[in-house]
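Hello,

I think I submitted the iron/sulfur cluster job twice by accident. Can you confirm which output corresponds to this input? Input:
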Amino acid sequence: MHTSVSIVRCADYGREAVEKAVAEAVDGAGGLELSGKSVLLKPNMLASANGGKPVTTEPEILRAAIRVARGRGAARVLVGDSPAFQSGDAVGAKSGLKPVAMEEGAEWVDFADSVEVAVPGGTLVKRFSVARAVAEADCVISLCRLKTHSFMYFTGAVKNLFGVVPGLQKSAFHMRFPGKAEFGAMLADLALAVKPCFAIMDAVVGMEGAGPFNGTPRSIGLVLASRDAFSLDWVASSLVGYDPLDIPYLRVASEGAAYGFDRADIVIEGVPFEAARIHGFEKVRIVRGEAAARKGPLGRLVRNLSVPRPYFSRDRCALCGACVKICPAVALGFADDTAGRFVAIDYEKCLRCYCCHEVCPEDAIDLKRRP
Ligand code: SF4
Ligand code: SF4
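Support: Only one job matched these inputs. Its output is below.
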């Protein structure tokens, strides 16, 4: 059985062009039959960003997805996400996603209320606490944005689902699964729990470099869609130059039958792969041997030398406290010296999860190997 991944050109975020591209991408990926169903659209709402940085899914992509869902018979269209540490309302308002949802008559949902869902086939996690709205929807659509990710290397349709875990409960997963491979397995299990019926990717303008928050905008000019979130991310990560087997959750999905993913089943529709390929995309450097670097004193030494760690710029830091609040290992705190207040880090406690880097609004954290 094949799994279609459609690739459609879309030069900018003009309303008509986006609506046409999203509808075309959905049809190219096999279409959506939503008669009488409740559909939850889950955009990427990581955090509020200034200056038009491509952090969240673009509002016109959401508008087009709402219209497509309605056009395919959805009885209810809901929109929601749980950002990294801010409220969904705050990020929704600043990103422009909430006003668009309201204009289009969709229901804006809060992810604070959660329920437990079982994942019998999960590799690592057998139960997740997810937003009630997600568990109760007939169909969840991952409405992601193509970006680099300092910890998982790439974020697309699958990583976007992490937002269904309410609020700071997300931090607990970083403590429980500090390694990239195990965190990737957790994400693959989460995809099994959520079972998205479709995924649509905003790759009109993506993010390269130090994503998913402090990277650089990159014009790509594409919209992608698939019924299978793993297949979509496999194709999208390949298009920007990754070996998808380096993306931890894609490796897990490609090795476990429970995930229903087989790269040999992927069929590209629309723009041919070679014509869509993005050259010179600035990827996150792949760290090899990271699992071994977590074991024993020698492992810790190797980790200190080979795995990038966060460095805090006192000049750029605005002392907002977002990093201190989100750090799952409680490795950060404010301290004072003669030069004033600063963020102090305990590298022995630091997991190298990069959650701090992911939320810093001032780009004050650099990820570097120890000199
Ligand atoms: S300091 Fe940053 S990278 Fe280290 S554990 Fe805390 S959030 Fe993660
Ligand atoms: S490093 Fe960034 S997130 Fe942390 S306090 Fe400073 S400005 Fe805020």
